[in-house]
């Protein structure tokens, strides 16, 4: 449902899910936690259901207001998942925190290092990677090396920690 909302993000959630599931295996997480992480991967952009398609698929530059509306999607992801008892808690947080960054530059809650768990950060960093390797209306998908270089700079700039970056590299290289 989510991937179909925008032709540019088709398969995005599935791709993300596969990487986080691989990381769960590398971390030696138990089956239940690994599967929950996979579900969080599938549902992380659920909140995009409330963002109008004209904005999601807009080819030109977004206005400030449109950008603000897009940036509300992880808030809605969490709001929706928190209504469902089996998703409330871990799955809702892992999914809803995927745009938060350890230096508090993320959104929607501007959470920081102390409030973000390793698995929150894992979903976040994998989301960036998966987005970079996919085609977008304004650019072709990047290669693995190029994408990892960009994320390496994000780590240097304090947006992610080395811990999740190492896990990502082990999962995709
Ligand atoms: Fe997102």
From TrEMBL:
InterPro entries: HD/PDEase_dom (IPR003607), HD_GYP_dom (IPR037522). It comes from the Bacteria. CDD domains: HDc. PROSITE patterns: HD_GYP (PS51832). Pfam families: HD_5. Gene3D superfamilies: Hypothetical protein af1432. Residues 1-173 form the HD-GYP domain. PANTHER family: 3'3'-CGAMP-SPECIFIC PHOSPHODIESTERASE 1, CYCLIC DI-GMP PHOSPHODIESTERASE PA4108-RELATED. This is HD domain-containing protein.
